[in-house]
Description:
Number of strands of chain A: 3
CATH architecture of one domain in chain A: Orthogonal Bundle
Oligomer: homodimer
Distance between the termini of chain A: 55 Å
Shape of chain A: flat
Amino acid sequence: MKAKPPPDRRRYQARARIAKAMAHPSRLLMLEAMEAGERCVCELTELVGADQSTVSKHLAVLKQAGLVEDRKEGVMVFYRVKVCCLKGFWDCIEGVLAENLKAQRAALR
Amino acid sequence: MKAKPPPDRRRYQARARIAKAMAHPSRLLMLEAMEAGERCVCELTELVGADQSTVSKHLAVLKQAGLVEDRKEGVMVFYRVKVCCLKGFWDCIEGVLAENLKAQRAALR
DNA sequence: AACATATATGGCTACATGGCCATATTGGCA
DNA sequence: TGCCAATATGGCCATGTAGCCATATATGTT
Lengths: 109, 109
């Protein structure tokens, strides 16, 4: 028997993969756009204003992480979000951070 | 008037800062440990099994992102989680990914 | 004061990431 | 078949990140 079971490192690696995929402004922007409905690469490219190859690589990152999936239609590829957890999370985070800011300001008096 | 209002890039940069802070297995492990109650650096150092200076830097990243706060007590410093959004998020993500896996396997028949 | 302990910081190295350009690939159309 | 448009991939460079060691800082103890 062990005094301390070692932490399940695989789980945290898996989570880190998700978090890393989210850890870029352009990818977050694209995720939010895709939450309103699927988007082709060309739309997303225009949206973020980077090179098409850059956007393609960002999408590959999101897909690899399992956050989005794609659908080919002729020459175009449409991506859409595969998880429903994002909006709730960001709403929560932004709510909390706004609270903290307010409390911080109030404490200055 | 504009046809397309440009996306609010600051918001996505702010979100990316949060996601980046979460984007490391050791930091996620520490966050989860701290959710059960505050922890001193020494405990967290033992938990992740890395150099103390490494852990200290990880904690600085989390603090900088606003995810944790610290409290000094004598020589020791205790860190604790400052946002409540994490557990719900990871539960959601892990649930969805497990679902996807199940569906994937079922589709193989 | 001298010392020991807990934590933070600076320095360095190795590796990962993001960007663009050029190019390959795939599908539609003349 | 040949060409154009949409997307993906490879190459390269600049920058960022994570790790350890050494050391600084701060606090409690003798």
